[in-house]
Amino acid sequence: MATDTLKSTTGASGASAVRRLLLDNGALTALIALVIAMSALSGDFLTTDNLLNIGVQAAVTAILAFGVTFVIVSAGIDLSVGSVAALSATVLAWMATSQGVPVWIAVILAVATGIACGLVNGVLISYGKLPPFIATLAMLSVGRGLSLVISQGSPIAFPESVSHLGDTLGGWLPVPVLVMVVMGLITALILGRTYIGRSMYAIGGNEEAARLSGLRVKRQKLAIYALSGLFAAAAGIVLASRLSSAQPQAAQGYELDAIAAVVIGGASLAGGTGKASGTLIGALILAVLRNGLNLLSVSAFWQQVVIGVVIALAVLLDTVRRKAGATPVAAGAGAPGGRGKQAATYIIAAVVAAAVVGAMSFLHNGSSSATKKVGLSLSTLNNPFFVQIKSGAQQEAKKLGVDLTVTDAQNDASQQANQLQNFTSSGLGSIIVNPVDSDAAGPAVRSANKAGIPVVGVDRGVNKADTAALVASDNIAGGKLGAKAMAEKLGGKGKIVILQGLAGTSASRERGAGFAEGLKAYPGIEVVARQPADFDRTKGLDVMTNLLQAHPDIQGVFAENDEMALGAIKALGSKAGTSVSVIGFDGEPDGLKAVKDGTMYASVAQQPTELGRIAVENALNAAEGKKVEKTVMVPVKVVTKENVVGFGG
Questions:
Q1: Phi, psi of 474 (to 5 degrees)
Q2: C-alpha neighbours within 13 Å on the C-beta side of residue 377
Q3: pTM of the shown model
Q4: What pLDDT digit, counting tens, does each position of 600-620 carry?
Q5: Distance CA 290, CA 50 (A)
Q6: Residue 596 and residue 306: Cα distance in Å, rounded?
Q7: Are 330 and 275 in contact (CB under 8 A)?
Q8: Which of 43, 188, 192, 258 is a plausible cystine mate for 68, CB 3.0–4.6 Å?
Q9: Distance of alpha carbon 476 from alpha carbon 618, whole angstroms
Q10: C-alpha–C-alpha distance, residues 463 and 540, integer Å
Q11: SS3 for 432?
């Protein structure tokens, strides 16, 4: 009986130990499981190039998340890191290019900008008694606004000497990965070996107890948020280096990814727990998810759903872990032998990962890429114009027997760079890109050039890189046509307002420049206001409503796309099409319907379905080595009530 009891107890103890090991290392377990799943589902996942891509794509999020780890460990939150990253990069580029400041001084000023933003957060929270959520939410808006003010809404070229941070060492090892590792080691050192690191855990565990024990909590919080700002500045510089330009709209939403990485890595939003290695694993999980889902051609919309589910599961795991008695604490604060156990766990994980790599490589051995595999990266699918490009591309792909993978960059130049890198590592026959920004797409397209993959631009060109063809309409010419149509409708004189698109996008710049150039021939037309509405119908409604309060006597509205024009029509009410003439841009279905109904005077119509069709045709020809025209121009025309019936788009 005693022997049986001992065996039973030993078995139970072994099962409990395994369960505890999995609970204490949930993020690591999840990462290994993801690698196994993605390797089984895609033969392109376990390649050297793709694994390096994952490291590069995780770098910016990880660096931001390391800074956020300090804040979350101390039971705070920082929603401003994405905006601070963009502001710091913009300051560097602006000082080094527009102001002629030496690059090394510009780098110091950029880092100082990040630290200053963090200190402001700290002051508002510690001395202003604002909740961290509110203080950092305010800085999110201020930082983004200052970035747009400094850059005037346009990307600024990044200094060549700093842009090397986005390159590789020895032609294969990405510098962003090295920066990520260094910042991770610094984070681990601060958390585990410094006074301020121990203070973070004490404040997060019980702030009042920390204060009563003599800890200067207010001063410590200043340092904590300053560190977060410092890491945000570093992330912004690395991001801008990858894109070879400082984008005023860069890193939007990255604060949520950073927080997610920290939470997935095992930290608690209640404070008191968290470590650098967990944060790194959390960032890698997000990068593996996005990379794998891209390779599997999963819709970008569903990708957001999957990532949300992963975050929820991570929080649930944290709850289960706490109930089970698992105790992830400060680095270096565990029991004797804890470091040895952790090292052993990582060694076991490495062995398992290596075994998986070998097995999956054997499983997919001999798989080949077809010439008729084409990738299409669109700047956004949250706009009917680009949905029509996608539709035209898919129709032509089906007709030609092309395997077309479509991704949505969501107007994020960094996300698009990641998608293009994924396409390149997948060994596609050719790539079609509709750039978020022409300069920012350059480095990723150059990588495709090196891999021998032909790239076709659609709607917008790519700067500082080779494209086999550009299939586009002339936005500047379209803007001029819009100005001419407006002037003719108003008889050469009148007051108008302009609704501008998303700041920093080439489409907004070119359409606005063309319209301004066209108006020079009509001095009787007065532009009384220009306001951005971000290519969005709801914002067009709100902005137009506000402008009508200041300028109720306008006779015309030029919107840089149909969506904003439709919002303006809603705000104008009965004035639209009667006392106020509205001109949009794109020729999308709802816009053409408004033209037919008479509420919109005209739309400067491109032919998006035709753009998509011709882009696929040229991409396939380029992949097969056939000759293609360097530039294929699809005509732009002004569609009014007189000719709207015959226009197909």
A1: -90, 105
A2: 33
A3: 0.79
A4: 999 999 888 999 999 999 999
A5: 12
A6: 41
A7: yes
A8: 258
A9: 24
A10: 30
A11: strand
The CA-atom distances, in angstroms, between 11 and each of 5, 201, 344, 572 are 10, 36, 22, 76
For residues 299 and 461, what is the distance between their CA atoms, to the nearest angstrom?
Answer: 24
Nearest to 565 by CA among 378, 384, 381: 384
List, in sequence order, every residue forming a beta bridge with 245; answer none if it has no partner.
157
H helix runs in 296-383, sequence order: 300-323, 338-363
Strand order in 403-408's β-sheet? 403-408, 373-378, 430-433, 455-458, 469-472, 631-633
- The residue assigned the tokens 């999308």 is 588
Edge to edge, the sheet with strand 494-500 lists 525-532, 494-500, 556-559, 581-586, 602-605, 637-639
Q: Check if the beta carbon of residue 188 is closer than 8 Å to that of residue 277.
A: yes
Alpha-carbon torsion (516, 518, 521, 526), positive or negative: negative
CB 174 within 8 A of CB 56: yes
Which value, in Å, is the radius of gyration of the alpha carbons in the chain? 27
Place of tokens 């694994």: 51
Q: Tokens representing 176?
A: 């962003």
- Chain centroid to CA 519: how far? 36
- Residue 366's pLDDT is 45
Question: How long, in residues, is the chain?
Answer: 649
Give me 373's structure tokens.
Answer: 């595999």
Residues in the chain with pLDDT values less than 70: 1-25, 314, 317-319, 321-371, 504, 648-649
CA distance 580 to 576: 5
The SS3 call for residue 240 is helix
Q: What angle do CA 287, 84, 86 make, to 5 degrees?
A: 70
Rounded-to-integer distance, Cα 13 and Cα 21, Å? 12
Which amino acid, one-letter code, is at 598? Answer: G
Cα separation, 167 vs 475, whole angstroms: 32
pLDDT of residue 350: 59
